[in-house]
Write a structure and sequence with these properties.
Length: 193
């Protein structure tokens, strides 16, 4: 099936035909797995070290563009995704300044929002907020009631269970991203074929 997509401002129509290029048919699902793999990595590193490395956000941002182009997203839609990502970064920076989020959390939220676009970002934010609230509540309860029984655990787990410790919000961000990912235009474009 031949589908055109337009690059905003270029005035050119680019055609793609993955049906005649088996390499492209194989490449698109691999690209679509990148975001879930990266957010799971972010959750695990945040859980164990209370940090999210910058390379995770950078890889998510950089992998969005080839994925969007190969799936045939129109240039205007890609620009909307970029706008959503930039807006999420600005909100994340404000939350970081207010000490509501860590810097890595803000960057990962912006990168995920880039992938979600206008169609998926509300599901992502809502799922992240609900899951984050539940995770935070469970962690506070675990810190209060389970801490005396945790002697001898791994250092990262003991640090996680510190009564006044930070909450690794990357876990909630990852869970919210995984819940919302099917609502993203990229996944919808892949399913539509």
């Amino acid at each position: 099936m031949l589908r055109p997509f337009f690059f905003a401002g270029a005035g050119k129509t680019l055609l793609r035909n993955p049906g005649h290029n088996p390499g492209m048919e194989f490449l698109i699902p691999l690209l679509l797995v990148i975001l879930p793999a990266l957010v799971i990595t972010a959750a695990l590193t945040d859980l164990t070290s209370m940090t999210i490395p910058n390379w995770i956000s950078a890889a998510a941002i950089l992998s969005f563009f080839p994925t969007a182009f190969l799936l045939g997203l129109p240039g205007g839609a890609i620009l909307m995704h970029v706008g959503v990502g930039v807006l999420a970064l600005l909100v994340g920076m404000a939350f970081f300044a207010l000490r509501f989020l860590g810097g890595g959390d803000a960057k990962v939220m912006a990168a995920v929002s880039l992938w979600m676009g206008t169609a998926g970002v509300s599901v992502f934010v809502l799922a992240t907020a609900v899951i984050g609230g539940l995770f935070g509540l469970l962690l506070v309860l675990a810190r209060q009631y389970a801490r005396p029984h945790l002697a001898g655990g791994p250092a990262w787990f003991l640090r996680l269970m510190e009564p006044k410790g930070d909450i690794p919000y990357g876990v909630a961000i990852a869970a919210g991203a995984l819940v919302a990912y099917p609502a993203s235009p990229l996944v919808a474009a892949f399913i539509a074929g």
